[in-house]
Amino acid sequence: MTSSLFDLSDRVALVTGSSRGIGLALATGLAQAGARVVLHGRDPVVLESARAELAGTSGATVFTTVFDVTDASEVAVGVARVESEVGPLDILVNNAGIQRRNPFVEFTLSDWDDLVATNLSSVFFVGQAVARRMVPRGRGKIVNIGSVQSQLGRPGIAPYAATKGGVAMLTKGMCADLGPSGIQVNALAPGYFDTELTRALVEDTAFSEWVRTRTPAGRWGQLHDLIGALVFLCSDASDFVNGQVLYVDGGMTAVV
Ligand code: NDP
Q: Would you kindly state where each structural domain of the chain is located, as residue ranges?
């Protein structure tokens, strides 16, 4: 009974930005829980190698799709293609994201625009395209990837924090509008994880040590730390959990 609550057998899941890093780890976790996973990104060559590796290690059937999450019309076409080639989406994980670092007074308009488009507008575009299909079916799970910056500021990343704060509020608004249609929309907010996006921070020994001392768990996150929370939010176990931000951060946001 308990294990069937978390069973994702035959659920169709799209994870945006899953060619590498956190997205690929999340897609792997969903595949291991039984889902039919669609990997996504902009580079078909990188995607194909991620697909082959995941299919080989998990034994699951894994699909790929290519579209730019910042282009609303590409998103609509891409989502339609996924549903016709793979099947109706049960699960969407809005994970694609970028980081840019600069002092506030030096931030360029184009970096601001890129951050807002990739981290926030994308959640609206992909979320809306998928929700329009989930609503008539009366069910679905949407998980938006936030960050500890959904509630904490840091020098040099004000625009990123603004987008991730926006993701937390968009999650609540989507819950309000989609909850009555049987759709749960929650956010999963990772602490500091070692990926390409954080490579500069990992290589900065002073910052790396700061993360360890600032985090009650005393370490950086490892990608597998995210899987249990994600599977919970994508499964029947969370059918009455809606509009929440679940921090998987070793306790960082709980303490000053
Ligand atoms: P990576 O840079 O490792 O991966 C980002 C993914 O997003 C890639 O697959 C990339 O593929 C894709 N992507 C980027 N821009 C676009 C676009 N315009 N259209 C389609 N796909 C795109 O990042 P992480 O794995 O570290 O981060 C993933 C998410 O987790 C982000 O939302 C990030 O903000 C969040 N996060 C990360 C933390 C960390 O410590 N690493 C902590 C908290 C949150 P491609 O470039 O080939 O298109």
A: 3-246
